[in-house]
């Protein structure tokens, strides 16, 4: 059995407020932590640590938290859209840019044209970037291929990333992202291809299916049909809903038994209560509202008041929010959505894991995976306060620590 003890932790932020621990984040000061074969085996105050003869790692009074979980990204794509960002800064509308060949279809074209090797190399650099920020679990969606062949290519690249990098990478099929330009006059045929050709071929490569439900994307009835089919293949359901208008997305997510629903900028109380009752996790994407400018933020206070579990994610994508930084997004959630710092930190750890249906990580307690992030900071709130700064001092995934870092 491989055993490791991490000692000299100034604050162990367990995200498990069990009795005797401080605050909603369950902080243990001057803590130690033992790992047996990749799982957490003992957690407590250093002075109470049982005698130990195995590998000992010194945390040098840094703080240790669960590894961060980014539960909603579009990390595999080709091309970059900073030119559009410049045009928007000069007053051009998103619709005008899309009509001139920009927008999401420009990413679809670039991704279709790109080789697997190119997609893998570019997405790999993004995964490295996330690892360097303490992210240990990442969800990645397809949805820039929009043909059987190109969606397969994206799903296979996600699988390659999962093999190549130590982060736990989970794929989601998003063939119903937008209706591709070549099917604008015949959307029924594209939806048939999604359900009858893409889902059977891709379901073995991913663990979930997502649908973008919005005016201009997919309707509620289309989403129900696609989700029903996806569930036949054993896939979990995520949805993009209520980003630009209240389309009853919360209720829809509850009806189709979704694990999570993302965006929710325009969701009403009825939808929120339906999500709370059905246990659908809300994935809030503050970076998308921030970066598109003039966007509305979801009403996180009302959602939490309704009893909804709220996660926060980057929604990394090349168009509306090209940020790989969950902590930056958590800071925006605090300043723009009225979340408390404690809620925001839970949103990128424990609750983000729950959004992916994972209860074996996101907290530091006995029996959990040893996915840890160590930060050189006086406390956990400093990470949100110094927005945009990277204080990572080390990362551990399933008990393995990367060379060079202290952990
Ligand atoms: Zn998204």
Please provide a written account of the structure:
- The two termini are 19 Å apart.
- Mean pLDDT is 95; it is low at 403-407.
- This protein has helices spanning 82-89, 94-99, 104-113, 116-131, 148-164, 187-202, 220-232, 249-255, 269-278, 286-292, 300-305, 326-337, 341-347, 350-355, 382-385, and strands at residues 3-13, 27-36, 39-45, 55-58, 63-66, 68-70, 135-141, 168-176, 208-212, 236-241, 260-263, 281-284, 310-312, 372-375, 392-397, 400-401.
- The radius of gyration is 21 Å and the shape is globular.
- The relative contact order is 0.15.
- The strands form 2 sheets. Strands 1, 2, 3, 4, 5, 14, 15 and 16 form an 8-stranded mixed sheet that branches. It has an 8-stranded parallel sheet with strand order 6-7-8-9-10-11-12-13.
- It is an alpha/beta fold.
- Zinc ion is lined by residues 72, 74, 240, 315.
Distance between the termini: 19 Å
How many whole angstroms does the radius of gyration measure?
21 Å
C-alpha geometry: globular
Low-pLDDT parts are 403-407
Helix content: 25-40%
Number of H- or I-type helical stretches: 15
Q: What does the average pLDDT come to?
A: 95
How many strands appear in the DSSP assignment? 16
Q: Could you tell me which ligands this complex binds, including any ions or cofactors?
A: zinc ion
The major sheet is characterized as: 8 strands, mixed
Q: What is the strand content?
A: 15-25%
| Class per helix and strand makeup | alpha/beta
